[in-house]
């Protein structure tokens, strides 16, 4: 097999594997994955808030959790496949509106992606006032989605 053909085959395999993993995420796996992802996001956000509450916050310590939230905010879109809502019988706080109103859910998801990016950018700027403001906006994005789409 020529080099070109081998490269094409590797790409086909990688692409196929990626498509397969997205398509075959069972409802149970999806619920587990999204809870674990949100748990990490929650932990990172708590670390950020704890640091900002400190008398003299160390901005360098905000960088890893800020990156965690950015990266994990992008995964949320793959964690709510059809059939992984409360009808599945699985233990989940995801409300059925996530699936019946996907456009709205998508807006909240996107708002978080944007807020997370803005927060990360503020952290890199080192400007504490900007960081605090961006943190507040990020927190509002969490709260907004939870109010609409998560059971109490
Ligand atoms: C687009 C909607 C949305 C956004 C934005 C969002 N969440 Fe959530 N979150 C949910 C839903 C829905 C659940 C319930 C998941 C389930 O039980 O299956 C959840 C669950 C959680 C959980 C509980 C995880 C567990 O252990 O079961 C935590 C913690 C959490 N979110 C934190 C956050 C934080 C912090 C942010 C913002 C930085 C955030 N979320 C942004 C929708 C969202």
Automatic annotation (TrEMBL):
Gene3D superfamilies: Cytochrome c/b562 (1.20.120.10). One of its GO terms (molecular function) is iron ion binding. The keyword Glycoprotein does not apply. InterPro entries: Cyt_c/b562 (IPR010980), Cyt_c_II (IPR002321), Cyt_c_prime (IPR012127). SUPFAM superfamilies: Cytochromes. Residues 1-22 form the signal peptide. Heme c binds at residues 142, 145-146. One of its GO terms (biological process) is electron transport chain. This is Cytochrome c. It comes from Caenibius tardaugens NBRC 16725.
